[in-house]
Design brief:
It contains 18 helices and 24 strands. The chain has about 575 residues and is an alpha/beta fold. It folds into three domains: about 170 residues, 3-Layer(aba) Sandwich (Rossmann fold), CATH 3.40.50; about 250 residues, Alpha-Beta Horseshoe (pyruvate-formate lyase- activating enzyme); about 100 residues, OB fold (Dihydrolipoamide Acetyltransferase, E2P) (Beta Barrel). Strands 1-7-6-5-4-2-3 form a seven-stranded mixed β-sheet, with helices on both faces. It is globular.
Length: about 575
């Protein structure tokens, strides 16, 4: 694989068209032009040249002239204008797992310059970068509150730079810069490559800088994210960006752009690197992760669209290329001892071959996040989810028939536009029928630009939303507690994540279904094969080696008690993932 060395000028210059240097002294947005800078014709000329197009001689001549022009003005955003020695950067992450991966991408971009270092202490920071979430109003309000705290810190440290990254940057754009003059840079999800330039220009000009240009191509496939927490034995890998589903309540397509997938080989290479670093679990990330298609690979086009029965979509699905099932198979082959998870899928994209692959591969975790959002067909139609209550339940039944040990998690919204008491009751009954192990539940928060914003009225009173939300939470906790208690006495394989937060004498880890398991940190037997299990069962355990497991080890644990969210267990023995899969039915 050829990896292009990054230069900001390798990209279409229209990416820079939204970089603005905004006067911190004036309420009007004032664009500062660079003397003898590039003009509109230059940008239009460049935009017509595809990045990977092989030019003919005439195009080559035109492109050479343009690049010569670029070089002449390179000091406009040249890294050499960076100030001082290494500046300390503090990252604060809000929102979903994708934001963790985005933070690692942003960190990698800064690290490559050699001019920045990461700090975990916000008071030591020269730069504070907040990776933001814009999915709900409450999430944004928390970020505004943090910004005010950092603004107080900035009054004490005049050269402190504050930046907003991610979805909130994309949604609000100039509004962030205009509000109380809190922020020095605003950088959208597709503009992280420009972070060094934005930080430089903000310092050099004394003005704010912004780039929120969305891209149809950017996936950061050539960047190796730098992990924020190097002690963890699990990692997140972004395999696609953006979303095409356009659910009526959702802001994601407007802040992360259209759906595009990374080349499959770049993902497998990243998994291999993580495996070499000792990572024991990776989670493949995407806004619609199971609609992944690598269209860069030429394969025979299968015009048949494999979609879950009873589901539909408002957009024309992509055809050809490598699908999510192909990627998941290759990912599971990298290291049989590495667990593979994925999130967040859409229920429409679960063809049979994907389900059978999950059944057959021991290291593909038996957990599916299946966002329902509502249990009412009428409400689902207003949400533009593309399925009915019956189709969703049929899919749940089918998956359980193929993968009996599967665990489901989900998302639910309380109080969506025009939601009636009967529609809410339908959601409550769905919670009881499916028996989820975990649910993300929220009261509805209307977002600008969405279809709901333009077509519906946010007419469910806040107190009604809150009551329905609490009723959903109560039902979920009851059903999850009953489900977990039914598993007491079973032996589950647990990957140790950390020392328990409640007791330093305990370990915490997660089982295959991604439920938290706590157990005592102590010396236990080590099982290497079937013969070792026979010795353990026959009372010949004195012939077995004993040791204290460490973070990153797999431990077979017998569940002894349960709540709705976790288990208490007794550690029985250590073993490899594949060994446990062979002997689990005989424990």
């Amino acid at each position: 694989m050829i990896v292009k060395r990054f230069s900001p000028w390798n990209f279409r210059p229209n990416l820079f068209s939204q970089i603005r240097y905004l006067s911190s002294q004036n309420t009007k947005f004032e664009k500062h032009a660079v003397k003898d800078g590039l003009n509109l014709k230059d940008f239009i000329k460049s935009a017509s040249l595809a990045e990977f197009h092989q030019p003919n001689s005439a195009e080559e001549s035109s492109n050479a002239i343009f690049l010569k022009n670029i070089k002449k003005h390179q000091e406009y955003l040249d890294d050499s204008t960076n100030i001082g020695t290494k500046r300390k950067v503090y990252f604060e992450v809000h929102g979903c797992q994708m934001n963790i991966n985005d933070t690692e991408v942003a960190y990698s971009v800064l690290d490559k310059t050699g001019l920045y270092s990461k700090t975990d202490n916000e008071k030591d920071a020269d730069i504070v970068l907040i990776m933001t979430c814009s999915i709900r109003e409450n999430a944004e309000q928390k970020i505004w509150n943090r910004l005010r705290e950092f603004l107080h810190q900035k009054r004490l440290k005049k050269d402190l730079q504050i930046g907003i990254l991610g979805c909130m940057a994309e949604r609000l754009k100039e509004k962030i810069l205009d509000k109380e003059k809190m922020v020095d840079i605003v950088c959208g999800p597709d503009s992280y490559r420009l972070l060094p330039e934005l930080l430089n220009q903000s310092v050099q000009t004394g003005n704010s800088a912004m780039n929120v240009q969305l891209s149809l191509e950017e996936t950061y496939a050539d960047l190796a994210p730098l992990r924020i927490n190097t002690n963890n034995k699990n990692a997140f890998i972004s395999i696609q960006r953006g979303c095409d589903n356009m659910c009526s309540f959702c802001i994601v397509p407007f802040v992360r752009g259209r759906e595009r997938s990374r080349p499959i080989q770049s993902i497998i290479d990243e998994i291999k690197r993580l495996s070499d670093q000792g990572i024991k679990e990776v989670t493949l990330l995407g806004q619609n992760v199971n609609s992944y298609r690598d269209l860069s690979i030429s394969v025979p086009i299968d015009k048949k669209i494999e979609m879950s029965k009873g589901f539909k979509t408002i957009y024309r699905p992509k055809i050809g290329g490598k699908r999510f099932t192909d990627l998941l198979y290759q990912a599971s082959e990298v290291n049989p001892e590495m667990r593979i998870r994925f999130t967040s899928p859409h229920p429409k994209d679960f063809p049979d071959d994907l389900l059978f692959l999950m059944k057959e591969k021991a290291n593909i975790c038996k957990t599916i996040h299946l966002p329902a959002q509502s249990g009412s067909t009428a409400c689902l139609e207003r949400m533009r989810r593309g399925y009915t209550r019956e189709a969703y339940l049929d899919l749940v039944t089918k998956i359980r028939q193929i993968i009996p040990q599967i665990a489901f998690t989900s998302d639910f919204i309380a109080g969506f536009c025009a939601e009636t008491e009967q529609e809410h009751a339908d959601t409550i009954s769905l919670l009881k029928l499916v028996n989820y192990t975990f649910c993300f539940m929220y009261t509805y928060s209307m977002r600008e630009k969405t279809r709901a914003y333009h077509r519906f009225t946010d007419d469910v009173p806040n107190d009604v939303k809150q009551r329905r939300y609490l009723e959903m939470v109560e039902v979920f906790r009851q059903t999850a507690a009953e489900l977990n208690k039914s598993k007491i006495g079973q032996t589950h394989l647990v990957l140790i994540d950390q020392i328990s937060k409640r007791s330093k004498s305990d370990y915490s880890g997660r089982n295959d279904n991604n439920t938290l398991v706590n157990f005592e940190k102590r010396e236990i037997f080590q099982i290497e094969n079937w013969d070792d299990l026979v010795k353990l069962k026959n009372g010949e355990d004195h012939l077995l080696e004993k040791k204290v497991p460490t973070i990153g080890d797999y431990v077979a644990c017998r569940l002894t008690s349960a709540t709705s969210q976790s288990f208490r267990a007794e550690p029985v023995f250590m073993c490899k993932l594949q060994t446990f899969n062979k002997i689990k039915d005989f424990i």
